[in-house]
Every structure is written in C-alpha cells, then in structure tokens.
Amino acid sequence: MGGSGIYSLTMVVVPEIVPLPKLGLASGVVGGVFAVSSIAGPLLGGAIVSRTTWRWVFLLKYVKNLTMGVYVLILVAAFHVDL
After folding, report:
1. pLDDT confidence of 10, banded at 50, 70, 90?
2. Cβ density class 13-33: b for 16+ within 10 Å, e for less
3. How far is CA 67 from CA 14, 15, 27, 63, in A?
4. What is the pLDDT of residues 28-48, one digit of tens each?
5. What are the DSSP calls for 5-62, one per residue?
6. Which of 41, 48, 53, 64 has the most CB atoms lying inside 10 A of its own CB?
7. To which H or E segment does residue 80 belong?
8. How far apart are CA 43 and CA 17, in angstroms?
9. Domain coordinates of the chain in residue numbers?
10. Model confidence, pTM
11. 27: Cβ–Cβ under 8 A, 6 or more apart, which residues?
C-alpha cells in the first residue's frame, strides 16, 4: 500500500511542479526509476540476504539513506532553478 501511494502521489505532484514543455521528460524519468527499482530492488535484496545474514539489510538501509539524502540535496540545490 505504501509503495502504490508513493507512486500515485508522484504522478500527481510531478505535473504540478514541472513546466508543461518538460512534463514528458519528467514523467519518463519517474517511470524509468520506478521500472528499474522494481527489478533491481528484489534482485539486490535477494543477493544480500542469500550471501550474508538479514541483519546487513539494516546497515545498508541507513548507509544508503544517508548517502542518497546528501546526493539528492546536492542535486536539488544545483538544479532547483532550472525546473
């Protein structure tokens, strides 16, 4: 339920914040990220759990969230004006 809510909310918010000429590109990027994550997530999760213990998932979760959070903040700061 959470994943479908996030995806649905993204499809509502993107047209509101992206200018009309760039709407196709933005929708394509959102759809591409969703497609890649739908395939890569279970594959990587299965590889991590089958080769290590399930406890590593929590460590990777915190490291990934911190790293991606900093990366997204840098991207937003750099490209906020261009949207």
Report:
1. confident
2. eeeeebeeeeeeebeeebeee
3. 24, 27, 24, 6
4. 998 898 899 889 988 988 888
5. HHHHHHHHHHHHHS-GGGHHHHHHHHHHHHHHHHHHHHHHHHHHHHHS-TTHHHHHHH
6. 48
7. none
8. 32
9. 1-51, 53-83
10. 0.59
11. 11, 14, 15
